[in-house]
Each structure stands twice: as C-alpha cells, then as structure tokens.
TrEMBL record:
<protein>
    <submittedName>
        <fullName>DNA-binding transcriptional LysR family regulator</fullName>
    </submittedName>
</protein>
<dbReference type="GO" id="GO:0003700">
    <property type="term" value="F:DNA-binding transcription factor activity"/>
</dbReference>
<keyword id="KW-0804">Transcription</keyword>
<dbReference type="InterPro" id="IPR000847">
    <property type="entry name" value="LysR_HTH_N"/>
</dbReference>
<keyword id="KW-0805">Transcription regulation</keyword>
<dbReference type="InterPro" id="IPR036388">
    <property type="entry name" value="WH-like_DNA-bd_sf"/>
</dbReference>
<dbReference type="Pfam" id="PF00126">
    <property type="entry name" value="HTH_1"/>
</dbReference>
<dbReference type="InterPro" id="IPR005119">
    <property type="entry name" value="LysR_subst-bd"/>
</dbReference>
<dbReference type="Pfam" id="PF03466">
    <property type="entry name" value="LysR_substrate"/>
</dbReference>
<keyword id="KW-0238">DNA-binding</keyword>
<feature type="domain" description="HTH lysR-type">
    <location>
        <begin position="4"/>
        <end position="61"/>
    </location>
</feature>
<comment type="similarity">
    <text>Belongs to the LysR transcriptional regulatory family.</text>
</comment>
<dbReference type="GO" id="GO:0003677">
    <property type="term" value="F:DNA binding"/>
</dbReference>
<dbReference type="GO" id="GO:0032993">
    <property type="term" value="C:protein-DNA complex"/>
</dbReference>
<dbReference type="InterPro" id="IPR036390">
    <property type="entry name" value="WH_DNA-bd_sf"/>
</dbReference>
Amino acid sequence: MSGMDLRELECFLVLAEELHFGRAGERLYVSQSRVSQLLRSLEGRIGARLVERTSRRVALTPAGERFRTALRPAYDGLRATVEDARAAARGVEGVLRLGFQGTADGGVTEAIAAFQDRFPACAVEIVEIPFSDPFGAVLRGEVDTAVVLLPVAEPALVVGPVFSRQRQTLALSVQHALAGRPELSAEDLADCPLVTPAAPAPAYWREAQAPTTTPGGRPIPPGPSVTTLQEGLTLTAANRAGMLLCGPTADYHGRRDVAFVPVAGLPESELGLIRRRDGGSERVRVFAEVVAGVVR
C-alpha cells in the first residue's frame, strides 16, 4: 500500500482501545473530526470498514478486529525501533527521577522495567510525592516527571500519556453502615464525610478527589484534611471518614479493617504522566513514549 501514513495506524490503534472518538482525540492531541478523517483515509486504503459508529456506541467490525490483531505487534516493533534509534542518536543516560502518589502500580512498574531494559545507561529513581501536593515536585524540579491523579490544569505542565481510566472506589471502615454493600451510587456519598487533600493542592484538584456535592446536588459532609495517602487510610480505618481512591490504589492498599466499595455515577478516575512545559530532557520524552506503549 503506497503512501501509508503511520499517523492513520496510530489513530486506529488508539481508537480501538478507547472506542470513543473524543478520548482518542485527547490522547492524540487532535480533534474528533481529525480522528474521523484519519480513520476514513485508512479505511479507504484498505477497502473495508474497520469501525462501526452509531449515536450510542463505537465498535470494531470483524475486519477491524483482524486488522488490530495483526497490526499491534508490528506497529509496536516499528515504534520501538524508531525510539531506540532516536535515543541512541541523542543519548538517553543518567538518572530519570519519577514521582508518584501513593504507589507505583503494576502498569507503571512494567513501563519502568521496559524503559530500563531498553536504556540500561539511564537509571530510574522512584520518589513518592505528597498526596496534598501533586504538582509541586515537578514544578520545583525535584523530579523530572510524575504519575498523578487527574485533573491537571496547571499552565506550566504538560499532561500525557493518560491511562488507567477506571471507576472510582470508596474506602470505608468495615464498621461503616455502607461498607457491606456490593456497590454505591454517587448519591450515597451524602451520607459519608470524605477525606480531603490538604493545601497546597489546588482547589479544583481537591474537589475532584473529594467532591462537596453529589451529582444530584446533595451536600457531601467535609472530612478531615490529610497530607499523605496513609493518613487518609488510617482515618478511614478509624471510621472518621471515607476516602475516594482510584482502582489501582484501592487494589494495592487492601487491608482487613477497610472495605473498598465501587461507586457508580462519578467521573472515572484517570492517571496521567506530567512534566514541565518549559523543559524536559530526552529521558523524559522517551519515558513518556514507553509508558504510552505499555500502560493502558
């Protein structure tokens, strides 16, 4: 196929993962209409529809499923080859300081291992950053990049890739009246004070992690403010409040005195890799590319 555009292939693979034109555009930093344009061009080259799109859902066609299965390993191999050549030309060595909140989950540690296997001259130092200060370490240059909970609206920061999009979970003391339920609704949060990140976390970020009202407009009682994730879990275990957590954090911090109950009706939690807009080494750029290829 002459004139094959790698951007079309990348667009198709991202859309096949997200099954949502808007989210695919966000990951590719293009508009929804550009995603549609790239998909149409690829389908024209192949001569078959790869994606079915209705007002309610996006799904791969049988031809799209076969194409994705065949394309994924070839595309990953090509991308890795290009990354290796670029890194070798510019030099990826030294130390990459990576910040994280709470814990570096399995996907992130897999990405770290893949990065170190590919670039053994570059060591990765993992640094825990405070729950109450998700962006400060990157802004101050204490770490080169960090995995944080979204949203991120800091003009001085660049976000990407975004990954681990999952339903939120409410941590509760096993003694709490809601702890025995298999699932909660967002409206149930009106019956449970929520642990809140302390300053200097921005107000919009604190609101996202501990909303003050339910989607229906009912007030959610404020709980204690904490600096670290462990403080929040300790207060939760003592039945002082509940704490909203992303899925990977809830899975990692399983304990007998805390129940973790999924919550329906809230925006999904997302993790993102952040770096400073006004700088960033080749180490940071290449690490972001490895994360994008490994973590979903």
